[in-house]
Amino acid sequence: MLLTDKLQQTDNFTDNEQRIATYIAGNMDAVATMAIQELAAATYTSHSAIVRFAKTLGYSGYRELRQAVVEAVHQNVAALTDVDANFPFRPGDSAMDIASNMAELTIAAVRRAVLQLNEDALHTAAERINNAHRLFLFSIGDSQIRARSFQTKLTKINKFAVIGEEYGDMMWTAANLGQDDLAIFLSYAGMVPQHTRILKFLHQRNIPTLLITGNPESDQVQYATQTIAITQSEQERIKIGTFASQASFEYILDTLFTIVYAKSYQHNLAQLKTNYTELFQS
After folding, report:
1. Class of domain 3-78 as given by CATH
2. Would you say which domain of life the source belongs to (predicted)?
């Protein structure tokens, strides 16, 4: 999760923590070079309050928190976009205004996603996909559209994934997975009860799972073999569409597919040429 997102999740913050969060969010450039005593003075708190706040955000202490601030400043995360992911237009906007906002929102969603990815996570996930005997995709709603797109791409490299909900009984589908298979779950909120139940079941059977979500605090994380959590500035319910989250999912799945493809690039390319010749030029 991006630091800017953590600073906005103030519901469980104390008064001191809210004051510190507000100050950091509004003074990133200055905080990037501040000593802990300076930040404490600027927020009318104490050395120990700053350390506790850092740990609340998941950092080991102020040094690690300040490093996250430095990285945020370097990446200019706060300036990714000012388009509201939940309502990406204003009353009276022209058609071209809305078109520009949607383009900016999509680009920002992908940029936010790439900032939260890392080499090891991508490599591990791609290896799991590449080595799996069978692939099963669990998703509902808009996320299932992304899953089906991923399913179609996989056929290009002779991998055939099963949509878990395809025949209306995902529980029985899950019951037949083996330890050489991989179950991939797509859920931005990570709150689908059936998915949680299946993840727990597969965890108990030591069956590999990959959870792609926008909620790093989801109960599902504890049961997944690997989690890729990519947050967006998108609310769970008060929105007109799942624009940012689905752009993020599409980008992640496309990235994983191309990494898998690249692992056997020459073989896949040769197979593509052979198949094209035999199918369309014979």
Report:
1. mainly alpha
2. Bacteria
